Amino acid sequence: MSNRSHEVEYEQMLLSRHGLWQHKGGRGKDGPMERSAYILLSRIRVQGPMSIGELSDAFGLDASTLNRQTAAAMRSGLVERIPDPAGGMARKFQITDMGARMLDEKRDYFVQALDKVMADWSDDDIAHFASYLRRFNSDIERIEGRPWPRPGTDGP
């Protein structure tokens, strides 16, 4: 492992400790949104309705874990089960109006927090940082064999 990889690991660890998630943005007026629900809703929003099997493949998690996460999201009113729009046998999960609203509120909170952190950064610095993060995530996705769709693209 290179010395630079050690630096990246350490900075990634520090990044994960900052806890933007735990501040006031962690709870909306309709109650808490767990981090797992935020990621689940984000994926469904970009890709469209997904079955447990599709979610399991996308997240690299076993179906029982996804069953627990989707059940919690259903109890919170964030997702609902629908028949497969393509006519398949499996039921799929889609975001409810409340789930979409809460996801937007959470994302707006994070964007505002990032705006504060990067207030003194140039537009070029922000663009380069976003590009490096996208490349880093895309390379992890390539190695794991689980690409993640980006908004404005044609899926995974």
How would you sum up this structure, described in words?
The chain contains six helices and four strands. It starts with a helix and ends in a 12-residue tail after the last helix. A hairpin with a 2-residue loop joins strand 1 (27-28) and strand 2. Helix 2 crosses helix 5 and helix 3 packs across helix 4. It has 156 residues and is mainly alpha-helical. The chain has a domain at 19-118: Orthogonal Bundle (Arc Repressor Mutant, subunit A). This is MarR family transcriptional regulator. Pfam families: MarR. Residues 1-138 form the HTH marR-type domain.
What is the assigned CATH homologous superfamily of the domain at 19-118?
A: Winged helix-like DNA-binding domain superfamily/Winged helix DNA-binding domain
Give the biggest beta sheet: 2 strands, antiparallel
Second-tier CATH architecture of the domain at 19-118 = Orthogonal Bundle
Q: How many helices does DSSP assign? A: 6
Structural class computed from helices and strand pairing? mainly alpha
What shape does the CA trace take?
A: globular
First-residue to last-residue Cα separation: 30 Å
Sum up the structure in keywords:
156 residues; mainly alpha; Arc Repressor Mutant, subunit A; two-stranded antiparallel ribbon; 9% strand; globular; WH_DNA-bd_sf; DNA-binding transcription factor activity; WH-like_DNA-bd_sf
Write the layout of secondary structure elements.
Layout: H1 3-17, E1 27-28, E2 31-32, H2 35-47, H3 52-59, H4 63-75, E3 79-83, E4 91-95, H5 97-117, H6 123-144
Antiparallel strand pairs: 1-2, 3-4
Helix pairs in contact: 2-5, 3-4
InterPro entries: HTH-type_Bedaq_tolerance, HTH_MarR-typ, WH-like_DNA-bd_sf, WH_DNA-bd_sf
Organism: Streptomyces diacarni
GO molecular function, one term: DNA-binding transcription factor activity
